[in-house]
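FAQ: What does the model actually see?

It sees only this:
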Amino acid sequence: MRYQLIGFIFVTVQCLSALNWKPVSPEQLALKTAKVDPNADAEAIFWEAWVKDVRAGNYANHIVENYIRIKLYNSRAIEKYGNVEIPYYSQQRMSLVDVRGRTIKPDGTILELNGTSILDSVLAKAGRRNVKAKSFAMPAIEPGAIIEYQWTEVYSEYLSRYVPLEMQREIPAWEVTYNVLPLQDFGFNQRMQSYPFNCEPTPWTPVDDDVSHRGFVSTSIKNVPALVEEPQMPSTRDVKAWMLIYYTPS
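And it is asked to produce this:
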């Protein structure tokens, strides 16, 4: 089923800013066993993204603000998720900004990620095309702890008419949420629509928030199992949960 996100209206564009940390409940800290998959070493309590296309002079920028919170249940989870690597691609005029994180220990103690420990490296290089990454180790993690981190992807002078939204990843998730603000500017006479694959997300609804998120619409899915790759399996796009958002003539 195809969904229409939003029509053609004008909205004032706000500047980039890191998302606020959400409060951690005592129930999340005290949790001992996984909720979505009983055998999971860790689970994402939530994965939230704010996706927007904004005008920048005579061009448009595509911006994605990400926020993930992960509960670590055992020592295997520490090995898997204690070191974080976020790739990005220079050939798409892509950069990563506002990278930050923190660890919440089982007793509620909070340790912030030191910005100087965030490293920039090249994962692969082919001619002028580089795959880079921001990498860092979460501080003082232990079984039972919660880690969370945020980062913003900026695609400068880039307006993609087809954008895949990943609803399923390699870790189980209690909830995956996307908040989307299409390009809204006089002279851009197109609207955005969406098409889900292998999932049934909630209907798009306006974000009930302060003025900084005015114009966004939101959709989500809950209790998402981890994507497990198997030998000779079809393409991941054929089996995983994801959604395509795209522009069409209005």
